[in-house]
Specification:
Elements (H helix, E strand, L loop, with lengths): L1 E9 L2 E7 L4 E6 L5 H10 L16 E9 L4 H9 L7 E9 L4 E5 L2 E3 L1 H11 E4 L13 H9 L2 H26 L1 H21 L5 H13 L1 H15 L6 H18 L4 H27 L4 H20 L4 H19 L1 H47 L6 E7 L14 E3 L2 E3 L8 E7 L7 E2 L7 H14 L7 E4 L8 H14 L4 E5 L3 H4 L4 E10 L2 E8 L2 H13 L5 H11 L3
Parallel strand pairs: 3-15, 3-16, 8-14, 14-15
Antiparallel strand pairs: 1-2, 1-4, 4-5, 5-6, 6-7, 9-12, 10-11, 12-13, 16-17
């Protein structure tokens, strides 16, 4: 929903702020007053092309800013999350165009590319009339509208899951096939390297362990000499630390018999003696195990020499060499059993393709059922809003894939034929319409422009309203070329549609204006010897006068006042 639109220095607009309401927002005003300028300004924040001609003469830049509520709009929320823009229930979209033609775009004060702004606009607003921002005129959107109407979300989700699984298996297949020749060429090299690495048989952390052992063996004499001296100092001498501590303990014991305050010191001396005894045992044990082994010393040196050259050859470390051995082991096994590996993948691909094809067929069948319901409903609504004898068709096509490489593409297989597909299935959907007797339906994008397009869109939106997720619909000059009787039906359709969407509609017909939930009048005046467009939100009394003016012209009469009240529903 568009809550607020602020426009500064745009064409005839000096500065104005419009607070829109929910439901049906109607904009009226004299021809040339600037009604469509408001829609053009809205288009700027929807990512449409900007030019310096839009900047009001004498101003440095044009600024258009819109405040949108986005609660419940999952597409917008996903897009904002993907671009790391923080948003909760509202976003502020701003576009600035300088007098030199330079354009900048912002979402919540975060700069964004205009292309991203356009993508965001596609999820916020559907604008119908003399503009390009019309989702229903883009054939690629038709399949989504049909699926939304039919409530096919779960079936589409299942299809996408199967599609992704098939794509994954096909990716493995492509990778394996592309490696076939390379594996053949490297098979002998891998065999040699595997033999060489296995002959050395490096172990993780082996060099560190050997270097630690080497250091001990190289210093075995010093280790023995020092540990023996320690043993003598601690225990095996006339004035050993052990004997000295025994004397200290005995003295403290005598003192504690006299004064109990020496008891803790006596206990500490016992602890010190125990620690010295433990050190003595450990030193003695270590000394007894010292190995004077020149053969082992030479063996370690030779092994370290081999490992040093080996790690330089295979990645700079033993861990890299071990990892490389594991990798080429897999590659060698694959080269040895290539046909078997291909066969397994082909079986998996066939299984995934069969699953995908079954879901695709069910999805296509459901779409065709939904299409029949939509086609019948659309023709009836078109007749009600003044497009008699219309034909509306939803064309669903399936494209047979007849090029090479079908076995490595995510195609659907039905019978003997393979069909092109994408994440949405193997159906290609497009809306066709004919609005004149004797004419065959043509693609919707090629029908007449202006009000007729708007009414066609209105009919489609009326049918698809409950499923279409776009929060705001804008209809510019929807009443072009229709009478008051048909205008009344168009107004009722807009009113009905506004229960599901916020609608902004520009009109000249009192029958449509009378249906408004919120009514704005656009006027052109003079400010400082310059033309300026202004917009005012009408009170109930002002609404009556405006609708009466639309009924009778500038000379408002009692009968036109009465008619206006009747159209608005005021007794």
């Amino acid at each position: 929903m568009l809550k607020n639109l602020t426009i500064k220095n745009y064409a005839l607009i000096d500065e104005l702020e419009i607070e829109f309401g929910s439901g049906l927002n109607i904009i009226t005003g004299e021809t040339g007053a600037g009604k469509s300028i408001i829609i053009d300004a809205l288009n700027l924040i929807l990512g449409e092309r900007a030019t310096q001609d839009e900047v009001r003469s004498g101003a440095d830049k044009t600024v258009v800013e819109g405040v949108f509520t986005i609660s419940g709009n999952k597409k917008v929320q996903r897009l904002l999350e993907a671009t790391e823009i923080e948003a909760e229930e509202e976003i502020i979209v701003r576009r600035e165009v300088s007098a030199k033609g330079q354009s900048r775009a912002f979402v919540n004060d975060t700069p964004v590319p205009v292309a991203q702004l356009k993508e965001l606009g596609d999820y916020l607003v559907d604008l119908h009339g003399q503009h390009e921002h019309q989702s229903l005129l883009r054939p690629e959107t038709h399949i989504d509208l049909l699926d939304d109407f039919g409530g096919l979300d779960n079936l589409i989700k299942n299809f996408k899951g199967a599609y992704d699984s098939l794509n994954s298996e096909l990716g493995k297949m492509k990778d394996l096939v592309s490696r076939r020749e390379a594996l053949k060429e490297k098979r002998e090299l891998y065999a040699f390297q595997i033999k060489e690495i296995d002959a050395v048989n490096p172990q993780p952390g082996e060099i560190d362990r050997l270097e630690a052992e080497l250091k001990i063996l190289e210093n075995s004499e010093k280790l023995y000499e020092v540990t023996m001296k320690l043993y003598e100092l601690l225990y095996d001498s006339e004035s050993s630390i052990h004997d000295q501590l025994v004397m200290v303990r005995n003295q403290l014991e005598d003192l504690s018999d006299i004064d109990k305050t020496f008891e803790p010191l006596k206990a500490d001396s016992e602890t010190a003696k125990a620690i010295v005894d433990e050190i003595t045992r450990s030193v003695q044990s270590y000394s007894s195990k010292i190995d004077f082994n020149p053969e082992r010393l030479e063996e370690i040196r030779e092994r370290l020499g081999v490992l040093s050259m080996f790690r330089k050859k295979y990645g700079g470390s033993l861990e890299a060499a071990i990892e490389y051995r594991e990798k080429i082991g897999h590659e060698f096994q694959l080269a040895e059993n290539f046909d078997e590996a291909i066969g397994k993948l082909e079986g998996s691909v066939e299984q995934q393709r069969q699953k995908l094809s079954e879901i695709a067929e069910r999805l296509s069948s459901k779409r065709r059922e939904v299409a029949e319901r939509v086609m019948r409903s659309i023709v009836g609504v078109l007749a009600e809003i003044g497009i008699e004898n219309a034909k509306f068709e939803i064309v669903i096509k399936n494209k047979v894939y007849d090029a090479d490489g079908a076995d490595i593409k995510p195609l659907v297989k039905l019978g003997r034929d393979m069909y092109e597909t994408n994440e949405k299935g193997f159906d290609f959907v497009e809306f066709f319409i004919s609005t004149n007797v004797g004419e065959e339906p043509r693609p919707l994008a090629k029908v007449a422009s202006g009000g007729e397009i708007s009414r066609i869109m209105l009919a489609l939106k009326t049918i698809l309203a409950k499923s279409d997720r776009l929060p705001l619909l804008v209809f510019d000059e929807i009443d072009t070329g229709i009478s008051g009787r048909i205008g009344s039906k168009v107004g009722k359709s807009l009113k009905s549609l506004s229960k599901f969407h916020q609608i902004i509609a520009i009109t000249h017909l009192p029958q449509i204006a009378g249906m408004a939930d919120v009514h704005f009048r656009v006027e052109k005046g003079v400010k400082g010897k310059r033309a300026v467009t202004s917009v005012s939100r009408l009170s109930e009394d002002e609404r009556v006068l405006e609708v009466a003016r639309l009924l009778s012209g500038e000379d408002v009469t009692p009968s036109s006042i009465s008619g206006a009240k009747e159209l608005i529903g005021i007794k």
